[in-house]
Amino acid sequence: MLAAHLLGAGRSDVLAAAVLGRPAPEGLEALVARRAERVPLQHLTGSAPFRGFELAVGPGVFVPRPETEQVAQVAVDAAAASVARTGYAVVVDLCTGSGAIAIAVAREVPGAEVHAVELDAAAHGWAARNVAALAAGRVGVVRGDARTALRALDGTVDVVVSNPPYIPPDAVPVDPEVRDHDPGVALYGLGPDGLTVPRGVAAAAARLLRPGGVLVMEHAEVQAAAVRALVGDLVRDADGGAAFTDVRTEADLSGRDRMVVATRTATRPGASGDVKDSPP
């Protein structure tokens, strides 16, 4: 893959060149040496594949993983269902990072109005770059806090999707590619359980979503029960009703429990609709 990157060719072309005994491209040894030092392949090539397109990535942004493609699929399906039903869908991607999920929804669901939110300055820059290249005019990129952004859309959003940071502080990744090169702000979810940021994302989703709207949020396999509980514990308004119904865990393509999916509850007639975090 490094040779293909240097040659601007496909992997089959590299194999053919090797069979024919052609010399290695200039600079290959230097790239192989950096890869041997566990610099991520995606940083060396400057790109990462995601659902059939290539994202620009590098230092300062989380490299999207294949398992997140299934999270995007659930969001795509929910947005497409809304378009089929009403002719449009409003989708918000919180903690967008490189913009991967937002771009996937925009490219795969004609009629979707997509908003991507990212707080970190470096990651926001990568998201804006990827949107300009892959989904110009179809995704709005906002730099802001996922917990408070896009208040003008409160109660109107059809799908909120997120791959937030969720790693606990004592669960430092073993792989150097992750530990030393993915930004910590994209990995660690704060709090002893790593779920402080996901709690904020879920509360923001309850604020943003219309009744019947769908939340899709990635988490670690071991967090499935805890994330279901934190989503299910959110209260809707002064009457104390649940903010979400049908709170369930869905698997990624490898069969691991990697996302929570929930439906926004209808607000009681006459209630404020404000969503409050449940008591600790």
Features of the shown structure:
280 residues, Rossmann fold, 2 domains, seven-stranded mixed sheet, two-stranded antiparallel sheet, 11 helices, globular
Report a brief summary of the structure.
The protein is α/β, with parallel strands linked by helices and 280 residues long. It has helices at residues 2-7, 11-19, 28-36, 41-45, 68-86, 100-108, 121-134, 176-179, 184-187, 196-208, 224-232; strands at residues 47-50, 53-56, 89-94, 112-118, 139-143, 157-162, 209-218, 244-251, 257-264. The chain has two domains: 2-56, no CATH class; 68-264, Vaccinia Virus protein VP39 (Rossmann fold, 3-Layer(aba) Sandwich).
Describe this structure in words.
It contains eleven helices and nine strands. The protein has two domains: 2-56, no CATH class; 68-264, Vaccinia Virus protein VP39 (Rossmann fold). It is globular. Helix 5 (68-86) packs parallel to helix 6. The chain has helices at 2-7, 11-19, 28-36, 41-45, 68-86, 100-108, 121-134, 176-179, 184-187, 196-208, 224-232; strands at 47-50, 53-56, 89-94, 112-118, 139-143, 157-162, 209-218, 244-251, 257-264. It starts with a helix and ends in a 16-residue tail after the last strand. The strands form two sheets. Strands 5-4-3-6-7-9-8 form a seven-stranded mixed sheet, sandwiched between helices. The protein is of the alpha/beta class and 280 residues long.
